[in-house]
Specification:
This protein is 65% helix and 3% strand. By secondary structure, the protein is mostly helical. The protein has a two-stranded antiparallel ribbon with strand order 1-2. The radius of gyration is 19 Å and the shape is globular.
Length: 243
């Protein structure tokens, strides 16, 4: 595969990630986007639940399956290894785009915070969640995570090596601060509708399941080092030291 073509493909996939990430902030928070989680034409409740559930599955299943080492070994028989991660990022971004486009709002209100101070406080937590997501990616290796490092090394003729196991910053206190940030952002909302609740509950269940699968892979890859890390550090919340 042309090295320049691989680099261009990786950059395009990264731009697709950036677009989907920024749109996700507006989609979840009902901010500045043409179609958000609570906007658009409402369908009947049963139809909306079926459509939204299918959209969530269309994102979750490929996103999880494509991340497994066994799938990667099979997949790289057809997709050049330097662009495997970029392809994963692109598929995830496109499936998110489909979800944003076809999501059916369910506007019935579960809770609504009217107090201006309370709303501001919850929105501050919402933004803190997204900041935590972004910061967490840079604490490990943002560009490796989204495929740019792989295509860059291929473009300049250098061999790719997996990042070393490190626990910088927030990773010393929780094993998955990135996913913690998503959970905070999805739930910290001053007006919770049934549609948003479905989204938050489904993504929370998916994250908890996906983390179990990811940790199994990390133990297989890093061995005793990751096992020791698991014993010392909580998965999503800091572990309280025993007296």
């Amino acid at each position: 595969m042309s090295r320049i073509l691989a680099l261009a493909y990786g950059m395009a996939s990264y731009l697709a990630f950036l677009a989907s990430f920024l749109y996700a902030v507006g989609f979840v928070g009902n901010l500045l986007v043409p179609k958000s989680i609570d906007s658009g034409q409402s369908d009947s409740l049963p139809l909306a639940i079926v459509v939204d559930t299918l959209l969530l599955l269309l994102f979750a299943v490929p996103h999880s399956v494509m991340a497994r080492p066994a799938f990667k070994r099979w997949w790289t028989q057809f997709v050049p290894p330097p662009v495997e991660r970029s392809t994963y990022v692109l598929v995830s971004s496109l499936s998110l785009g489909l979800l944003f486009w076809q999501w059916r709002p369910i506007p019935a209100v579960v809770w609504h915070i009217e107090n201006s101070i309370g709303r501001s406080a919850v929105l501050a937590v919402f933004w803190a969640g997204w900041v935590l997501v972004l910061v967490s990616t840079f604490l490990i290796d943002h560009f490796d995570l989204f495929g740019l490092r792989q295509v860059y090394l291929y473009a300049v003729g250098r061999e790719y090596t997996s990042p070393e196991f490190r626990t910088p910053g927030l990773y010393r206190y929780v094993r998955h601060p990135l996913m913690l940030g998503f959970l905070i952002a999805f739930w910290a909302i001053p007006t919770m509708t049934v549609g948003h609740l479905l989204f938050a509950a489904a993504t929370t269940a998916y994250i908890l399941l996906a983390l179990r699968l990811e940790e199994r892979d990390l133990v297989s890859f890093y061995g005793d080092r990751y096992q020791a890390y698991r014993r010392q550090v909580g998965m999503l919340l800091p572990r309280i030291p025993k007296p």
